[in-house]
From TrEMBL:
One of its GO terms (molecular function) is carbohydrate binding. InterPro entries: DctP_fam, TRAP_DctP, TRAP_DctP_sf. It comes from uncultured spirochete. It comes from the Bacteria. Pfam families: DctP (PF03480). PANTHER family: DICARBOXYLATE-BINDING PERIPLASMIC PROTEIN, PTHR33376. GO terms for biological process: transmembrane transport. This is TRAP dicarboxylate transporter, DctP subunit. Residues 1-22 form the signal peptide. The lineage of its organism: Bacteria, Pseudomonadati, Spirochaetota, Spirochaetia, Spirochaetales.
Amino acid sequence: MKRMHKAALILMLILVPAMLFAQAKPIVLRLAETHPKGYPTELGDEEFARLVKERSGGRIVIEVYPGSQLGEEKAVIEQVQFGAIDLTRVSISPLASFVPKLNAFQMPYLYRDSDHMWKVLKGDIGKELLASLEPFGFIGLGWFDGGARSFYNSKKPVRTPADLKGLKIRVQESELMMGLVRAFGAVPTPMPYGEVYSGLQTGVIDGAENNPPSYFSASHYEVAKYYTLDEHTMVPEIIIGSKISLGRLSKADQDLIKQAAFDAIDYQRAQWAAYVKLSMDKVIAAGCTIIPVPDKTEWIKTVQPMYKTQSKEIQDLIARIQAVK
Ligand code: BDP
């Protein structure tokens, strides 16, 4: 009897500290981000991580890996699907190769303005879309602002869609974006973001398209001086988690993470607006030729056929997005 007690006591002395230690060890989740530290999406990631840490009392720690340290977007998305990377913030463009209905959200000239886009993303349609990513291996968490994308090139000022004819334009790894560039009579070249600068510099491509923050932050403006503000697409950014790795957490922790991502949106949007302004100021100061496009009628007309070739599922979603007032 006495010996039994002693054995139990020894066991407890070993187990209790081990259990306490296990409890004290935080759950660490890795988040992959293409952009460098300080870029508005990266700041949004940091805010998301801060909220998760605070609300979980330090039990859940999100480590942000900026600057494509964990790979370029397409490869990162694959790894999130396998559970090798826990979280990422990406553009919905490359994600649409995995989840085709996302294309509905990046159709050219779809949103009337940024307010319209945010009503869609934060409302029922946006929430429904986030929830529908699970069968593809992702948990949709929240949206970030990615502004409007426009063309830039190293050759000439592009003032009308016809001026784009024949130019080799880099696009994200996205069928829809390839179709868009073709609709303008240009030649689409899919390429990872990290290769665009040297592509422009060596002349492998003549141009690319992106929002002002990316045009500036990735220094593309140094090697492609003509920036045409045609604003052909507003492509939302998205935060997704791996169904495999987040699936190991309790339902309560998953909900906490979802809520934190959603609650980081407004902070990110404010950072975005400030950085758009800064980027435009910088590229103008650097001597870039900025070509405003106050009348977009011709641009809008050129891409209309793209709306007819979408699947029924996407066309239905587009109609619902357009109906949001
Ligand atoms: C930027 C997006 C980034 C994309 C990049 C691109 O924020 O996620 O990867 O465009 O064009 O605007 O690849």
